[in-house]
Amino acid sequence: MTKSANHNTVDTKDDLVAYLESGCKPEKDWKLGTEHEKFGYTLDDLRPLPYAGERGIRKILTALAEKSDWRPVLEDGLPIALLDDTGASITLEPGGQLELSGALLDNIHQTCTEVNTHLIQVQSVCEPMGVAFLGMGFQPKWRREDMEWMPKARYRIMREYMSKVGTLGQDMMSRTCTVQVNLDFESEIDMVKKFRTSLALQPVATALFANSPFTDGKPNGYLSYRSHVWEDTDADRTGMLPFVFDGDMSFEKYTDYMLDVPMYFVYRNGKYIDATGLSFRDFLDGNLPALPGERPTLKDWEDHLTTAFPEVRLKRYLEMRGADGGPWDRLCALPAIWAGLLYHRPSLDAAWDIARDWSMQERLELRRDVPRLGLKAEIRGRTMQSIALEVLDLANEGLLARNRLNAAGDSETGFLTTLQEVASSGITPAETKLKMFHGEWNNSVDPIFTTCAY
Question: How far is CA 322 from the centre of its chain?
Fold first, then answer.
């Protein structure tokens, strides 16, 4: 998993296919890259953070750069991200959600150290400011209009377009948080098997991590409202990608899909050029109205690949995108479940056997049911709880076989514990919060901001 692309002009579709294929690497070189987002708020009034001001996102980024080994990234003279020498970055989602995109690491022990180090750094900067962060899948209290948008030009372009293609896209951008892991593949055959298996079983992660039952301070009827939001964001760039399960799935097939995903923008000379709704196929032919006569570079293709949001996304690696944000132990649990399944061939084979015979209609129904029902959703008479327990056993076997030990001699299997507790009880994190909302929280979401803060 590399994080850069060159600026050579692309001549043919084959160049775009080759870009994806260049992600193939031998098993000995496979890594993990974990990302998570979180909501910032002021402790005294629980308000979402603005960009500017004494308790704003800009001051947090500046303080992190001053106190730690982070370098600011500026847009129009304003800090909008931080980078370090490991390849990690801290970026801003549209509503001010702070995202850590971790370095490419060998094992989950390192991932958990990275996450904890980051959270300690953030806390050391934010505590004196009276600011804290919350890990949930959806902003539980504040309305869409209460969320201040960050000063990033690409978000302005996307925000306007979102309102034309769905009703919840702006909520997705400004009021959701997730945890993701990026994983490698060895070959096209390996990519296809991992893509199919993880896409089919993504609802398992959605159920286990379901942690967004509130909207505007009230229960919303979902356990993972974040997952539901994707169902009405933009049908052209979201969903379960039925073609992945076809017999001819390949790097070229995904390239064709991305060529048909409408564009958002092109980045030129430090500026974002609005290309919403335009065709990358036309760009490839030199016929993009926004840039007449110009052909795309590989960097343009790399940017375009980030503008599709399916449940699993292909770049030069695979991104697992089905989980709600949550507390620190679940930030380490997500890479554990997917590395255990996808980085151990017997576990991968057995995981695919679980879902191999499901019809596309059944997959789509499961995708719709899980955000509402969590582990109680069913497919072919099996509950998600039953499937989750089996999947976790396979992940546990995979992590044991990986045999990545820490200094104390512990394997990575301990990172699955929090998920095993959820699966064994059948009670999602969202249901635990709903019970407290109707009980000791006295129908208020405010206690979340103290009990669930990082």
Answer: 7
pLDDT tens-place string over residues 328-359? 999 999 999 999 999 999 999 999 999 999 99
DSSP classification of residue 374? G
- How is residue 185 written in tokens? 């593949």
Residue (of 139, 194, 205, 220) closest to 27 by Cα position: 194
**How far is it, in rounded angstroms, from Cα 103 to Cα 34?**
8
Element spanning 33, H or E: strand 32-42
For the CA atoms of 391, 395, 397, 402, the dihedral, rounded to the nearest 10 degrees, stands at 160
| Token duo for residue 99 | 């995202």
8 A C-beta contact, residue 333 and residue 383:
no
CA–CA distance, 427 with 429 (Å, rounded to integer): 7
Q: Are the C-beta atoms of residues 198 and 320 closer than 8 Å to each other?
A: yes
Strands (E), 258-412: 265-268, 271-274, 309-310, 312-314, 318-324, 378-379, 382-383
| Nearest residue to 178 (alpha-carbon basis) of 70, 98, 117, 258 | 98
Tokens of 305: 């690949």
Structure tokens at 4: 């850069």
Alpha helices, H only, 374-407 = 384-402
pLDDT digits (tens, 9 = 90+) for 185-219: 999 999 999 999 999 999 999 999 999 999 999 99
